[in-house]
Design a protein that fits this description.
- It is a single chain.
- β1, α1 and β2 form a beta-alpha-beta unit.
- Helix content is about 45%, strand content about 15%.
- With about 450 residues, it is of the alpha/beta class.
- It is globular.
- Bound molecules: adenosine-5'-triphosphate.
- The site of adenosine-5'-triphosphate has 18 residues, from α7, α13 and α15.
Amino acid sequence: MTARALIVDDEADIRALLEITLSRMGLETQAAASLDEARHALASNSYALCLTDMRLPDGLGIELVRDIQIHHPDLPVAVITAYGNAEDAVESLKSGAFDFVTKPVDISTLRRLVNSALQTSQAPAPPQVEAATDQPQLTGETPAVEELRRMIAKLARNQAPVHIRGESGTGKELVAKMIHAQGSRAEKPFVPVNCGAVPTELMESEFFGHNKGSFTGAVADNPGLFRSADGGTLFLDEVGDLPIHMQVKLLRAIQERKIRPVGHSQEIDVDVRIISATHRDLQQLIAQGQFREDLYYRLNVIEIDVPALRDRRADIPTLAKTLLTRISERHGLPQSELSQDALRTLVSYDFPGNIRELENILERAAALAENEQIETTDLRLQPSARIDPANEEEPTTTKSQPANIDDSLAQAEKARIIDALERTRYNKTRAAELLGISFRSLRYRLKKLGID
Ligand SMILES: Nc1ncnc2c1ncn2[C@@H]1O[C@H](COP(=O)(O)OP(=O)(O)OP(=O)(O)O)[C@@H](O)[C@H]1O
């Protein structure tokens, strides 16, 4: 059956252009010149795609987007906005449009948009119970995780930029991968980049690419992250770490959907969906002048919060089991199990490093355990050695404990601190956050424990 598209525009010229382009792509088209006509058409026919202009004689295209979300939630709708009117574009994405195109309508952009809409509307429903095993999965049954799954499935169906907030190790990258894997871009690359790890001087060429020889040290061609992710998703992890000059360039690239590789005079079209994440408070960074507000609104069209593990403790047993399976597969070892007591201990632990910390604890415990049963002592958790940031005193657990408890506490503390430093590439501010202590407190501990 030929897919049918509904085109809503009051300007005859644009209608004709859209109709010609879409029929050349093999679609059947139907046109409406007002909101009212469009509503009638939607009520009496079914469509694979709707394209609507923003300004219509009897109202705004965005109203149609909202109607469609309610009455035809599976119908992808894109909005045509005036050039440079970013607010309209952002508003329509927020209301549920899967994408937008600016006037004057660029035919190749339009074609890409139509193809991606058709893939979305023909894509099978997001995998629920029996998902393919290579699909990234979220473990957990708490309402918070159920809600997260629902959001992911919904966001996978549009193209709007998504910003993921959550503490370190909560699964932000996993969420980003799931949005990608369940959407129309799944067959195209998912390209993650840790914005805090790219050296400032290489940033522009890392993002936008360069040709061999375009600057000293450019020994080979580099397509850059945008082109590597073309057709797919670019995941900007720790986006709050981007230096301001790069924020300006990134904003341009996202707005114009064009990039200019270092040393090139021509701009190149790119089609990437941007998903960003951070564990930092971007609003606060904006207030401190370290993050551009315009970029924030561009990235943050839809925001999604990933809960901390301590706020969904009921998931700890299932997660521990999933992670133990993963660990045993990784090392080709028999799967370990947690003793009742060990499980109880884990459930009451605070996990400042969230799921990643749980995974590390289990990995170490599986290696330390005498057999396939992990006991509380194998967890090497020192909850009493966790430092209260408000109180820089020594932990007071020594009284009723064996004589060498101080040493073993210090050792455990040292191991946790070194682990945090390694995981944050020796960024002390982030290491302190990961450990749930203040920067001052970390400095004090480094000195006390003789860590250089
Ligand atoms: N719900 C979950 N089910 C199973 N595994 C999970 C879940 N959430 C996270 N993980 C695992 O936890 C680890 C950390 O997740 P991820 O890297 O996505 O976190 P993050 O929030 O992006 O971390 P960071 O802020 O440090 O970049 C990964 O190994 C991931 O597979």
